[in-house]
Amino acid sequence: MLAPPLGWFVLIYMASLALLLVTAFWQINFFTTQIEQVWNLDNFRTIVSDPTYRIIIGRTVALAATVTITDAVIAFPFAYYMARVASRRIQTLLFAAVLLPLWASYIARIYSWILILNHSGVLNWSLQSLNLPPADIGYTNVAMWIVFSYIWLPFMIIPTYAAMERLPESLMEAAADLGARRWRAVRDIVLPLALPGVVAGSIFTFSLTLGDYITPILVGGESSGWRSLGLGTGSTFIGNVVYSNVGIANNVPFAAALTMIPVAIMTLYLLGAKRLGAFEAL
Amino acid sequence: MESFWARFALRLWVVLILLFLFLPLVLIPLYAFNSSNIESWPLAGLTTKWFATTWNDPDVQTGFALSLRAGLTATALALVLGSCAAFAIHRMTFFGRDVVSLLFVLPLALPGIVTGLALNSFFHFTGISLSIWTIVVGHTTFCIVIVYNNVLARLRRTQGSLIEAAMDLGANAFQTFRDVTLPLIGTAIVSGAMLAFALSFDEVIVTTFTAGAQNTLPMWIFGAIRLGQKLPEVNVVVSFVILVTIIPVVIAARLTGGSGIARTTGAR
């Protein structure tokens, strides 16, 4: 019974991934735009030596890290309330409420923020009603930061909640008996024991931000000052470079080499996460 | 116990985050009734004229038809392959079982761009031209994972003794499957199919790399937003897609008591 699904995965999916790796070592003939199956390291050499790509990779990783930290900060009190304060019924309701947006159309959730953040959108209107200056953060790095944090937030809440729920109440009681105030117990008991859950969530927030190209294309743009989030004025990320190399430049070998960057970063990240016990928290 | 103020602050935080999660989703259906074709807030007025315009747009029609066909085909394939995989992994204790189960979650754990570009290279290398069938192959690959996770989770919670009892009482393999196993796992299979369809109907990251000249509905939305064209129609279509993806998920959640939609193994 295993043969049909395993056959599908090995013959199509694994073969595709292997081919992607191999393609990264090929090159394109710039006159015929055909792929030449000549083994070389030129694509990787370009990525490492050209400062443009180093900046793009650095910017993407920095954004992914910022999004991950933001989601962790938002998720921690939320998950704490779900796991340690809410009644059983509220717990179930919140669980469903967090998961529902995750399933609601991905592109719809990005689009909703275009409506909110654009020049004549809900945000600027709200600020104007309060006699505040417009924020004008549509099509900037700040917009991307908000949108990524929004779309991946459920991935952070669920494992953090799961880790906190497993934590026995007796530990908190013991801390209280020993004279620790509640916030001290949260800092010294809940925080370290929930960490594998937070790391498990960060795998998704980090990995999905690294590889996304839809969000940069739809909500990103040239930005300066605080609107650039300190990530420079450029609006290109690993995802869009891969996307444009496939669509416009038709340089699939270079795109393949570039996707190896998020794959390599995620492999290192996963090895680190495994050491922190995040896989048991998945 | 938390102090009164700590509870108050936590409750306030939860309410704010719930508003953050849901208000954006409510906004789009409101814009679908916007009488102006300029996307500004507050709405200029209310109208239902864009629904007719959208309904009659041939690009939307073909996109919807393609998404529906690809989604249903991929769901059907994933239903068979994913259930087979779950049964095999659950029953057998063979060497390399952990490797195989890791393999089955890979399409959801890797960034979509990796899966998309890998399949794109595969189709180019093997000389398969991009069409609805290459879209179906891409969708089936990650839909299998959804069905597999759902069915496997249910099998693990099902008592094997019930199946053994049926066999002991003289039922053959087929009778046991039809009368005992299927009723036990039926809702898990149905909810897996619902979720797989919801994911397929909305997928755009992998689809962009595996589609030929024809656009699926999410690809049409992506293109329209990017070029800033037909935005009143985008509002209508996106509202519709939200409904089409949320309804199966609500049904799946009811069928599995909420646990089935957890999807902690990633997006796409």
Task: Please describe the topology of this protein.
The complex is a heterodimer of chains A (about 280) and B (about 270).
Chain A: H1 3-23, E1 27-28, E2 35-36, H2 42-49, H3 51-85, H4 88-103, H5 106-117, H6 122-129, H7 141-165, H8 169-177, H9 182-211, H10 214-219, H11 238-247, H12 252-275
Antiparallel strand pairs in A: 1-2
Chain B: H1 4-31, H2 49-55, H3 58-91, H4 97-109, H5 112-126, H6 132-157, H7 160-168, H8 173-202, H9 205-210, H10 217-227, H11 231-256
Helix pairs in contact in B: 1-11, 2-11, 3-6, 3-8, 3-10, 4-6, 6-8, 7-8, 8-11, 10-11
Query: What integer is the average pLDDT of chain A?
Result: 89
State mean pLDDT of chain B (0 to 100 scale). Answer: 88
Domain count of chain B, please report it.
Answer: 1
What's the CATH architecture of chain B? Orthogonal Bundle
**How many DSSP helices of chain A?**
12
Total E-strand runs of chain B: 0
Strand order in space, largest sheet of chain A = 1-2
Largest interface: A-B, 86 and 90 residues
Work out the helix count of chain B: 11
Helix fraction of chain B, binned, reads: over 70%
The profile of the biggest β sheet of chain A is: 2 strands, antiparallel
Structural commentary:
- The complex is a heterodimer of chains A (282) and B (268).
- Chain A is mainly α.
- Chain A has two domains: 1-40, no CATH class; 50-281, MetI-like fold (Orthogonal Bundle).
- Chain A is 72% helix and 1% strand.
- A two-stranded antiparallel sheet of chain A has the order 1-2.
- Chain A starts with a helix and ends in a 7-residue tail after the last helix.
- In chain A, 49% of the residues are buried.
- Chain B is an all-alpha fold.
- Chain B has one domain: MetI-like (MetI-like fold, Orthogonal Bundle).
- Chain B is built from eleven helices and no strands.
- In chain B, α2 (49-55) crosses α11, α3 (58-91) packs antiparallel against α8 (173-202) and α10 packs antiparallel against α11 (231-256).
- The two termini of chain B are 40 Å apart.
- Classes of the chains: A mainly alpha (282), B mainly alpha (268).
- Chains A and B meet through α1, α3, α4, α5 and α7 of A and α1, α3, α4, α5 and α6 of B.
